[in-house]
UniProtKB/TrEMBL annotation:
It comes from Liquorilactobacillus sucicola DSM 21376 = JCM 15457. This is Hypoxanthine phosphoribosyltransferase. InterPro entries: HGPRT, Hxn_phspho_trans, PRTase-like, PRTase_dom. Its EC number is 2.4.2.8. Residues 13-160 form the Phosphoribosyltransferase domain. Its cofactor is Mg(2+).
Amino acid sequence: MNSDIKEVLYTREDIKNIAEKIGSQLTKDYAGKNPLVICVLKGAFLFMADVVREIKTYAEIDFMDVSSYGDGTESTGEIKIIKDLDVPVEGRNILIVEDIIDTGRTLNCLVALFEHRKVASVKICTLLDKPDRREKTVKPDYVGFKVPNEFVVGYGLDYQGFYRNLPYVGILKPEIYKNN
Ligand code: PRP
Ligand code: MN
Ligand code: MG
């Protein structure tokens, strides 16, 4: 284990199992609906890869790069679209895949954006949900795990760009970020 990690919350095996479970539900829910599955970069890249491989029906894949946190541990409240989708979404069934819902600002903003673009439906699939921190309303449809109000990293989640490549989700030791 990485020495900056205080505790592992979810192992790769736990995440693989939950991705299979969510994927089989998605296979049923989206059969015949040709969903556009959207990965919210960068955090969602690993969970996205797990989930889409468990969707056993036709699905299109696209990517958006959205950022709110910059380099700190706190959201700045501003959502920046760094890369938009490549395809139009009007009339499409959208499934947004995220690594974590924290304050809810990112997804609240994305859902509003897709509604403005006149999608047929928009649903949310997230590996982690941290409901204690919610500031904006977001209703995730598929949730891997609910996490306590701790600074979690790994499996896509970063602190200052690091730890995304850890093959598990863990709690970062407070001494790593407390002086920033
Ligand atoms: C993180 C995370 C979610 C969002 C959740 O992304 O990946 O997208 O914050 O926080 P919120 O619910 O408070 O909006 P970040 O902005 O750090 O960009 P990244 O995915 O590139 O790390
Ligand atoms: Mn993100
Ligand atoms: Mg981040």
